[in-house]
């Protein structure tokens, strides 16, 4: 039986041999084709294999919470990856954006809050960072919670030159928690689910 206190994998980056790396597409995103091999648990090296890697850098997501009124604000916007989604490709999500060169995670959080919600927030509570889909992309998401007065903040935001058309919507926290706990697919993206579940565990601390 594995020791639950020891969660580190047996291998590290040095157990992967990158034989070749080629950029197959370089546009809004980048796709690379890698030929590689890696060490095996039973010893030795595995055979060479080809893998496509969706190259996407670090991203930041921010959950907006009003601890006085128990409200949460989410951004509703079109997402091409949700084209075949049962409820359609307009998704409810935390405010989010990509990290640009030279920016700190906190800088990105505050920039996106201004662009997508029209809010200036100083205090940010770190939730966690995670890999959304390590089987095919190198993206890492960093999540924060920002407390703010959400009374009357609903509206339309986003940068037109980036084709952003964002509707900021405000909901009672309990309504969103019920949706996450049920099979309701209104909120079905990982960043929003993780953030809301974190808030459920930490709401009393934030209210204090």
Give me a quick take on this structure.
With 208 residues, this protein is α+β, with helices and mostly antiparallel strands.
Question: Could you characterize the architecture of this molecule?
Answer:
It is a single chain. This protein is an alpha+beta fold and 208 residues long. It has 2 domains: 13-55, no CATH class; 58-207, Nucleoside Triphosphate Pyrophosphohydrolase, CATH 3.90.79.10. The protein is built from 3 helices and 11 strands, in the order E-E-E-E-E-E-E-H-E-E-E-E-H-H. It has helices spanning 105-117, 173-181, 190-207; strands at residues 16-26, 30-38, 49-55, 58-66, 71-78, 90-93, 95-98, 124-130, 140-147, 155-157, 166-172. The strands form 2 sheets. Strands 4, 5, 6, 7, 8, 9, 10 and 11 form an 8-stranded mixed sheet that branches. Strands 1-2-3 form a 3-stranded antiparallel sheet, with no helix packed on it. Helix 2 crosses helix 3 (190-207). The termini are far apart. The mean pLDDT is 94. This is ADP-ribose pyrophosphatase. Its cofactor is Mg(2+). It holds the Pfam family NUDIX.
Average pLDDT score: 94
Taken as a percent bin, the fraction of beta residues is 35-45%
Order of helices and strands: EEEEEEEHEEEEHH
Instruction: Give me the Rg, rounded.
Output: 20 Å
First CA to last CA: what distance? 42 Å
Put simply, the count of helices is 3
- The CATH architecture term of the largest domain is Alpha-Beta Complex
Largest sheet, if any?
A: 8 strands, mixed
CATH class of the largest domain: Alpha Beta
* CATH homologous superfamily annotation of the largest domain: Nucleoside Triphosphate Pyrophosphohydrolase
Shape call: globular
Overall structural class, as computed from helix and strand content, comes to alpha+beta
Helix content: 10-25%
């Amino acid at each position: 039986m594995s020791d639950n206190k020891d969660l580190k994998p047996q291998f590290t980056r040095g157990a992967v041999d990158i034989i070749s790396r080629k950029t197959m597409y370089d546009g809004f995103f980048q796709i690379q084709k890698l030929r590689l091999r890696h060490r095996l648990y039973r010893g030795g090296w595995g055979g060479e294999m080809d893998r496509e890697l969706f190259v996407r850098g670090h991203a930041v997501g921010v959950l907006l919470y009003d601890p006085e009124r128990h409200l949460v604000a989410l951004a509703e916007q079109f997402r091409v990856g949700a084209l075949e989604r049962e409820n359609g490709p307009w998704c409810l999500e935390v405010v989010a954006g990509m990290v640009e060169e030279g920016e700190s995670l906190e800088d990105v959080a505050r920039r996106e809050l201004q662009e997508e919600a029209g809010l200036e927030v100083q205090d940010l509570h770190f939730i966690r960072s995670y890999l959304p889909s390590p089987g095919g992309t190198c993206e890492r998401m960093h999540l924060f919670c920002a407390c703010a007065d959400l009374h009357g903040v609903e509206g339309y935001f986003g940068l037109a030159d980036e084709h952003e058309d964002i509707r900021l919507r405000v909901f009672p926290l309990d309504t969103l928690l019920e949706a996450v706990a049920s099979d309701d697919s209104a909120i079905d993206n990982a960043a929003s689910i993780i953030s809301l579940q974190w808030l459920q565990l930490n709401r009393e601390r934030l209210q204090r």
